[in-house]
Amino acid sequence: MPRPVRLTLVLLPLAVAACAVSAQQVYRSVDSNGKVIFSDQPPAANAQPATPRGGVSTVEGGGAIGGLPYELQQVTQRYPVTLYARDDCAPCDTGRALLNTRGVPFNERQVKTSADVDAFQRLSGDTSMPLLTIGGQQLKGFSDTTWSQYLDAAGYPKSIRLPAGYRNPAAQPMVTQQAAPTAPAATAVTSPTPAVPPPAAPSPSNPAGIRF
Fold it and tell me: Is residue 172 part of a domain?
């Protein structure tokens, strides 16, 4: 009887250690160029910890985040989230719902026109959607597990902590459409005023000098 008890005591720390290892799946660090990197490998010894940048807290693309809780302001400033999506895309809708359910402040870029598609392909090297960017990290296609892991690693809360009445910025096109140039107004063509001939010289037959 004592042997099974000792075996249980040995295995229990191993199981706890295994759980602790499996929980650390995504790491974040800053390289020498200041770029934030997410990875499933521990950062190198010379990697810098991710630190907040100074300045006004804004969501990438101009969405204001004033009034957010301090912790959420910091993570949104360090790792702004942008969703790239299109209409009639079920995975895009599911990904958007995940962000809203967690209360993640994000910008959305809609891919609709051929110019949008070209710009999106230059960004991601692909045409499949949705695409989620968290800081400089790109997550192609929707995966509940993957998106949640990276949002957790960035420090976003698992449940809504947004102030009442907060709204994310309205979705914007991938490429801003330029207004068509206005055609110049047509210049009215006026007939030249005919020159008025000088009055006829008086003559014996036309003493008043009237010209007909």
Answer: no
Q: What mean pLDDT comes out for the span 152-177?
A: 92
For the chain, how many structural domains are there in total?
Answer: 1
Q: Which residues contact 185 (CB under 8 A, 6 or more apart)?
A: none
Q: Is 205 part of a structural domain of the chain?
A: no
CA–CA distance, 194 with 68 (Å, rounded to integer): 76
Spell 193-204 as b/e; 16+ CB within 10 A means b: eeeeeeeeeeee
* Whether residue 177 has pLDDT greater than 70: yes
Question: Distance between alpha carbon 81 and the CA centroid of its chain, in Å?
Answer: 7
CATH number at 26 reads 3.40.30.10
Give residue 139's domain range: 21-157
- Which of 17-26, 155-164, 178-187 shows the lowest mean pLDDT across its residues? 17-26
d(CA 14, CA 20) in angstroms, rounded, equals: 10
DSSP-assigned letter for residue 143: -
* Residue 199 covered by a domain: no
Residues in a beta bridge with 83: 108, 132
Residue 11 lies in a domain: no
pTM of the full structure: 0.57
